[in-house]
Amino acid sequence: MAVQAQAGFRRLFNEIGPVDQVGIEERVAKYGTRSIKKHAKLWGLKTAVTMVDLTTLEGKDTPGKVAALCQKARRPHDDPAIPPVAAVCVYPAMVKHARRALGGDSAVRIASVATAFPSGQAPLRTRLAEVKAAVADGADEIDMVINRGAFLAGEFARVQDEIVAVRDACGAATLKVILEVSELETYDNIRGASFLAMRVLRPGDFIKTSTGKTTLNATLGNNQVMLEAIRDFYLETGLAIAMKPAGGIRTAKQALTFLVAVKETLGDTWLNNTHYRFGASALLNDLVRQLEKERTGAYQAPYYFSEAAESY
Q1: Cα dihedral value 45, 46, 52, 55, nearest 10
Q2: Which among 16, 154, 236, 290 is least buried, having the fewest CB atoms inside 10 angstroms?
Q3: Given a cut of 70, is residue 308 above it in pLDDT?
Q4: What's the pLDDT at 303?
Q5: Which CATH number characterizes residue 157's domain?
Q6: pLDDT digits (tens, 9 = 90+) for 189-248
Q7: Per annotation, catalytic residue among 72, 96, 176, 208
């Protein structure tokens, strides 16, 4: 099995090319040095707000907590100039409560983690039933996890077949494919898994770094590897796949640096919430705090802002 896996990886990397790790690290180190002027900073902060997937993924979630999350998603702050977020993300059992809170005409979408999130360790039929139930209850988007064990064993066809099955179970709902980058271990593996997923996704579907449940989540490095995979896939096929870094992005300064990476790698077309998201709910309060600072000239104390939901 190990020999077959090695042969499979060689074929894949021959097709898509390896990652220059030193080059990636040098490139991302420069993003934080960019000077962002006031007008561009304001635009970036508001745009980042619109890209947040506001999330609660706890065993103690209740309908009331989900309703409060939806209210914050719609109106992150009293200032009406601050826009709503992209989506709320909840477990499948909470989708119907989010739909009730948001109604049918909200600009805020409902996302649901599924496929035995975060491990993915359930029979495929169980994972697909979970997806179908979430969509039936009103989910607009599904965040699935790939079978990392199958990928690392070189069972690439199995990985793709499972993504296709989930994609079909989503119907019209957008699919976000979580690679769980920390368990893929290398930049080459992250690039390889990105291509495997993108080859069976639809334009507008996402690849996503992480569940937020492991020790290493979104970094500028693994984000850059995936952005470049999206760029190379787009140049090869003309199909635009979206991107979502998740976990560990907590400050407005970090978010702006990630947006610099998007602009310099993929261009302005990807600078919107149909092409790029942040799976980092703890980020929202800092974005709003920075926007208030830009408006008033003074920082508000953190207790003026409601608690952010779980970051993922």
Answers
A1: 100
A2: 236
A3: no
A4: 53
A5: 3.20.20.70
A6: 999 999 999 999 999 999 999 998 887 889 999 999 999 999 999 999 999 999 999 988
A7: 208
Q: Which of 72, 96, 176, 244 is catalytic?
A: 244
CA angle 186, 273, 68 (to 5 degrees): 100
Looking at residue 217, its pLDDT comes to 86
Does residue 309 belong to any structural domain of this protein? no
**Is pLDDT at 20 greater than 80 in this prediction?**
yes
Residue 310 lies in a domain: no
Q: pLDDT for 53-84, tens place per residue?
A: 999 998 899 999 999 999 999 999 999 999 99
Nearest residue to 178 via CA among 260, 97, 111, 93: 111
* Token pair 């942040």: residue: 278
Would you call 96 a catalytic residue per the annotation? no
Report pLDDT digits (tens) over 140-179: 999 999 999 999 999 999 999 999 999 999 999 999 999 9
Q: Which of 61, 143, 188, 286 is catalytic?
A: 143
Into how many domains does the chain fold? Answer: 1
Q: Is 244 an annotated catalytic residue? A: yes
Active site residue 208: yes
Does any domain span residue 67? yes
Percent residues over pLDDT 90 in the chain = 83
In a domain, 35, yes or no: yes
